[in-house]
Amino acid sequence: MSFEKTIPLNEFITLQRGFDLPKDDRLEGSVPVIASTGIGGYHNEAKVQAPGVVIGRSGSIGGGQYITENFWPLNTTLWVKDFKGHHQRYVYYLLKSIDFQQFNVGSGVPTLNRNHLGSVLVADIGYDNEKRIAEIIGEVDDKIQLNRQINQTLKEMTQAIFKSWFVDFEPVKAKIEVKAKIEVKANGQDPERAAMCAISGKTDDELDQLPPDQLAQLRATAALFPDELTDSELGPVPQGWSIVRFKEIIKKYIDNRGKTPPTTETGIPLLEVKHLPDKELRPNLNTAKYVTQETYDSWFRAHLEEDDIIISTVGTIGRICLVPKNEKFAIAQNLLGMRFDRKRALPYFMYYQMDSFRFRHDVDARLVVTVQSSIKRKDLETIDLLSPTMDLQLEFEKFVKPFVRKQQVIETEDLRSIRDSLLPKLLSGEIDLPGNTPSE
Q1: Residue 139, Cβ neighbours under 10 Å: how many?
Q2: DSSP secondary-structure letter at 340?
Q3: For a pLDDT cut of 70, what percent of the chain falls above it?
Q4: Helices 390-405, 127-166: inter-axial angle, 10-degree rounding
Q5: What pLDDT sits at residue 439?
Q6: Rounded to 10 degrees, what is the CA torsion of 401, 402, 406, 410?
């Protein structure tokens, strides 16, 4: 089957420029404010009823967002004002498949002029065929979204554990509180037991319901936390923990000499900033750029290994990820890989410390702003880090690894690959649709 009937895009649908809404004018609410690259905030009023489709007009061109709740599109976007009887989700996939970069009229900031879109011809395949394509690709997309939600929930759980142990020091403070009560009045309370409650989120009575082996493991973990705080450069920290500079615990940096390597269409994937996820620990390996084995061997000072950490250092600063097991890839010059001295810092602990608010704040304070924001390696090395005992770092790693392993990242990447290869074939008619009826 092939789709031969075409129509100009500006006759197929009507695109409308979004609306101004400065941040100072936004009121508290749950209505998403849609920017060219995603949700840019929230407001108490919607301008457009869902479902809606939005593409980037300024700053970031094209792309495509399918919005399932009433929203406010910003003036950096174009939104579909009139679908003209076409299936909304199909229109979203159609717009995602178009390279709008060819219509960039901006000299500095990329800008899309919608008046040029009349030259874009799209297939007019009929509503029934549009609906089938949207259902096929939509089923894959829905599974990807479900995986993302699962991953985000699991990551939030591990972040909560890190915050409890290493930011709020809840097990330590629980011990301190009970210890103070004991000193004032003998009340039979056990500081170790109080820490066990803080770690597990269970009451004292609920602890007694745990199997003996779990209770023993919980007590062993609680014993790793001290019962005093002491002053440090970062404020009060648990006694026996130290403060170290980033450079003191780095074993090796992995980069590509600050230059763009020659790329090919096949070979070893080359990762850029956009491949570092916001909500997942592992990178998105679905890239269009590759390097040859020869370039991989000669261009890079060192190669990434499992559980090395990658951080973005140019443009979008501070995105991080852990290197997956049995994956081979290279990184662009706007990324920096690092391997820590495992006698002083374990990778899972360091990942969550580098994902914490304080670390990101310290990174922001060291940014160099010219044409693009960036952070230099020598400035990263001056950041102070919390260094708990290695026994406790190891216990944290054992505690969070089951959550991390459950993340559906590999499956999600496979689904993305299926979606991205299937979509153009369905849109072009290269693949027959089941039960197809000719378009009118």
Answers
A1: 11
A2: E
A3: 91
A4: 160
A5: 44
A6: 30
User: Do 242-387 and 6-125 have the same topology in CATH?
Assistant: yes
Give the C-alpha separation, 206 to 219, whole Å: 14
**Minimal CA–CA distance to 7: which of 134, 130, 131?**
130
Phi/psi zone of residue 41: left (φ > 0), alpha (ψ -120 to 50 degrees), beta? left
Using an 8 Å Cβ cutoff, are 95 and 62 in contact? Answer: yes
Strand pairing of 14-17 and 77-82?
Answer: antiparallel
Q: Give the model confidence (pLDDT) of 133-154 as tens digits.
A: 999 999 988 888 887 788 788 8
Are 50 and 71 in contact by the 8 Å Cβ rule? The answer is yes
CA-nearest of 272, 318, 319, 309 to 291 is 272
Residue 79 near residue 48 (C-beta atoms within 8 A): yes
In this structure, which amino acid lies at residue 395? E
CB atoms within 10 A of CB 378: 9
Q: Report which secondary-structure segment, H or E, holds 368.
A: strand 368-369
Of the candidates 338, 246, 269, the one whose C-alpha atom is nearest the C-alpha of residue 301 is 338
- Report pLDDT digits (tens) over 6-32: 899 999 999 999 999 999 999 999 999
> 348 near 401, Cβ under 8 Å?
yes
Report residue 115 as tokens: 């008046």
Strand ordering across the sheet containing 268-271: 290-291, 268-271, 330-331
- pLDDT level of residue 402 (50, 70, 90 thresholds): confident
How far is C-alpha 51 from the chain's CA centre?
25
My answer on whether omega of the bond before 262 falls inside 30° of 0, hence cis, is no
Q: Of the ranges 147-151, 253-257, 326-330, 413-417, which is most confident? A: 326-330
Domain ranges of the chain: 6-125, 139-241+389-422, 242-387
| Domain boundaries 6-125, corresponding CATH code | 3.90.220.20
How far apart are alpha carbons 203 and 210 in whole angstroms? Answer: 11
pLDDT tens profile 260-295: 788 998 899 998 888 887 666 777 777 878 999 999
Determine the straight-line distance between the first and last CA of the chain, rounded to whole angstroms: 14
Architecture of the domain delimited by 242-387: Alpha-Beta Complex (3.90)
Dmax (CA) for the chain in angstroms is: 87
Q: What is the DSSP letter of 160?
A: H
